[in-house]
Design a protein that fits this description.
CATH class: Mainly Alpha
CATH architecture: Orthogonal Bundle
Helix content: 55-70%
Strand order of the largest sheet: 1-3-2
Distance between the termini: 56 Å
Number of domains: 1
CATH superfamily: Winged helix-like DNA-binding domain superfamily/Winged helix DNA-binding domain
Strand content: 5-15%
Structural class: mainly alpha
Low-confidence stretches: none
Number of helices: 7
Largest sheet: 3 strands, antiparallel
Order of helices and strands: HHHEHHEEHH
Mean pLDDT: 86
Shape: globular
Length: 120
């Protein structure tokens, strides 16, 4: 079997398709700082609950994020990547986030949104 035939690019392809949307890319940037409640993502990005859920569903299906339920709240975090190529590409992307002004503004809004009782 040739090296090309043994290279499975499906995990990387799923990642790239999922990140091919500005909103989902911004969500991943915020989640690179740690686990967040859905309401924090809504507030930080100025999204409706339905749009936030739809975008998170795409990221979850691609294996980019994973949920954790706590009562009626759902928290998301970046999922561990088992594929080395996908892991390295996601890590490189996360490292580049700090250089983007729009993403820094998202983090500022996130910090304001995460005040006491922000999920109530």
């Amino acid at each position: 079997m040739s090296a090309i035939a043994s290279l499975d690019v499906r995990p990387l392809s799923r990642l790239m398709k999922a990140l091919g949307d500005e909103t989902r890319l911004r969500m991943v940037a915020l989640l690179s700082h740690g686990e967040l409640c859905v309401c924090h993502l809504e507030k930080a990005l100025g999204l409706t609950q339905s749009n936030t859920s739809r975008q998170l569903t795409v990221l979850k299906a691609a294996g980019v994020v994973e949920p954790r339920r706590e009562g009626s709240w759902v928290f998301y975090r970046l999922a561990p990547q088992l594929d080395e190529l996908t892991k390295s590409q996601l890590r490189a992307l996360v490292n580049a986030f700090g250089k983007r002004e729009v993403l820094r503004r998202d983090v500022e809004r996130l910090l304001r949104a995460k005040g006491p009782a922000s999920c109530k």
